Amino acid sequence: MPDNTNISVPIPNEWPSGYYFGDGSGGNYSKYPTLRRAGVGLHYVNLDKVPMYNFWQPLPGPQQTVPRAELFALCLAVTHVHQAGVIDFFTDSLITANTFNKGPARARLANNADLWNYLFGLIQAKNILCRVYWMPSHTDSMPSKKKLAPSWMQDWHVKGNNAADLLANDGAAIHAIPIDKAQPTLDTFENLALIQNRIIHAIKMYPQRDFKKLISPKLQLSHSRKVESAIWMSKHALHIINNRVCCMHCHSTVSISAKHVFDFIKSSCVPREQYKSFAIGNLHTHPSHNVVIYGGVLFCTKCGCTGVNKAEDLVSNCKNILKPADIYGQNNIKRYKKGKSPAGFPNWPYDKFLVSDRTIIKSINSAVVNMRAKMLQRVEQEPESDNESSVSIPSGALSDLGSLGSSSD
User: Fold this and answer.
1) What is the pLDDT of residues 255-269, one digit of tens each?
2) What CATH number does the domain located at 6-177 have?
């Protein structure tokens, strides 16, 4: 602590327990950071509530701020009080009172952490009981502040706070910058204020402009993120394809920007009949296809795409999700309904499935058996007709399907 301190009456080497009022001041140039020189004031009242000692000094160090001066006043009281003393400290600095009452762990994360570390370390070392209270300042001259006063505040608290305030001003005056040294800086601030006021006046002279409300890209992005987050909780198997939310089970779709998109996501899914995807080498047919094994050829009954040793179009999204199948696919679907060979497959049906990997053939055995039973049932129920909607499957194709799963490894 610095030696350039001032007291109104002699103070013992060890200060007594009692009531201490502390305050800080930024001096005459408090609003100018480069000119500010802070001061500290302490006013002591004994246990009989009789004012006893006054103490004031300048705030040491390069950091000259009023909050630091307020905290430094508390540090002075704890430093000079006797061992195992009891201090009731009153301050009009809300940040000082709140930070102290939150405890040392929180205080060490606040501004002026060096002083907080010193303060709590000294309290523990000297076994001091310190209580810090906040009260509003100048309640005698500003009646509007009385409504902020705590219930315990009395007149002698107001007088003690006013005394500490005057003492802090005296402490700041000790090392205040002389006016002749401060004047150039004051002139600079004054000129800057004139320039700022002139700019503000010029801006106010322009008429108020009308701004059109534009859709913020952030709002659009936020909507997309909400949709992406919602689909993970949906009962549908949803994917976003070409700005549409598509279900791979029931094949329902809705625009991502539609008002009812969240209602669709929350709705129940009623899957349509389709077979599981098939593995071909390192690839798998996309689940949006309705894939059947048609005479040894992988065939999608929705878009008419085919696959053999390579999955070809079957690994990507089904073309019939967002628009009708192309001419090639429509032609293949008609040929499928008539029981004819798909386009581009001579000597159809084939004797075996056109995939050489027997482990893949074994993995789809159950799907093939189920498909064969359903196709036979459909042939028995529907009469033969020349209509394009009728289905007639060559017996050779069906018999070949039944033998696919019998291959041994």
Assistant:
1) 888 888 888 888 887
2) 3.30.420.10
